[in-house]
Amino acid sequence: MNILIAYFSHGGENLIDDRIVDLHGNGNTKQAAKELESQLSALGHKVNLFEIEPLLPYPHSYDECNTRSRQEYQDGSIPLINAGPNGYEAYDIIFLGYPNWYGTIPGPIKAFLRDHATEGKTLVPFVTHGGQIFLYSLDAIKELAPKAKMVEGFAIAAPYINQAPYVIKEWLEVHAELLK
Ligand SMILES: Cc1cc2nc3c(=O)[nH]c(=O)nc-3n(C[C@H](O)[C@H](O)[C@H](O)COP(=O)(O)O)c2cc1C
Prior knowledge:
Rossmann fold, 8 strands, binds flavin mononucleotide, alpha/beta, 6-stranded parallel sheet, two-stranded antiparallel sheet, 5 helices
């Protein structure tokens, strides 16, 4: 079983519990993705971590990031992203991680799904969020990856990102069959 963890994470200023917090490049989704990689590796799985990066990075500032991402959300525009992971075709399971932005997937995730065939692959979306969990994001993924087998992954609220090891451990225990 070849496993890919592909994720997008902003990692700049964010609004957490009504306070602006600077995540200094170590975004919540990135932390969750790294923890997932570490637990999967410890279980003996072959896994690769891939960061989806917009060619034009989102501004570090919360307000400026909001301005650009809200514009993309409203007009449906999709940003350009980096080239995909080597040997993409060989992956059987793709964990797809993202922050909930405006109740749905951020533009870079749309770009990744548009650019990569998912037919015949198992897609496991996981989200970090400010309270809205997956909201409309799973429907948005289904629309862009209609022929993938979707399995709902885990969700972690931003103020509780330090709980990621426990949430992920439990998810992996419950879904052990999927990874066999
Ligand atoms: C532009 C923007 C829009 C957001 N929209 C939502 C939202 O609609 N619902 C929600 O629950 N959280 C929302 N959030 C909060 C993020 O989903 C949350 O803080 C996430 O953990 C950030 O992950 P990251 O550090 O990996 O980018 C938003 C954050 C940003 C920056």
